[in-house]
Request: fold
Amino acid sequence: ELKVEQNPLFLSMQEGKNYTIYCNYSTTSDRLYWYRQDPGKSLESLFVLLSNGAVKQEGRLMASLDTKARLSTLHITAAVHDLSATYFCAALNAGGTSYGKLTFGQGTILTVHP
Amino acid sequence: GAVVSQHPSWVICKSGTSVKIECRSLDFQATTMFWYRQFPKQSLMLMATSNEGSKATYEQGVEKDKFLINHASLTLSTLTVTSAHPEDSSFYICSAKLGLWAQPQHFGDGTRLSIL
Reply:
């Protein structure tokens, strides 16, 4: 059974600082997704990572994937208040009864303050 | 592209009533739709997977008689919460995708259900 663990679960950052959110998954998965969720809203897709070594960047966010370590990271550069949200990673189940389903991490609640 | 519409966005009703939530893929044919439930400050939990024209597959612990799912067409799936009680209050999110394993899921805007 695929399990996805994120850390930290809560992150309070000062504006301008850098930080990384980690996402570990327990079994083989070829696709790793990152989503953003604002309070009271649904998920907004940020990145999909398809292969080992994949790196994608959008603005102050950069995501990477290491399939051998079963680890994805979401790096925040020079945080701004607008980045405050909950961030989820999700891995696609590659086999078994959950084939084709997403397993989500617990989410990281990010607060960026002055 | 790949827009998924969910309706209603918010519903408040009395305990014991049944509530229907619709999930529509507006610009693509969704052979597979998923229904998730999210409690405050928690992650998304998959409730069931529905494929067009066949019975939904429910996750362990989800009562299929309580949460009725219908996926009668390639653009519409419905979730009916029957005889809803306060503990059913939650944020329900649907997603839709083409049938291929590798296709991404496109998420609806969610429905906030409050049972008094």
In short: The longest strand of chain B covers residues 90-97.
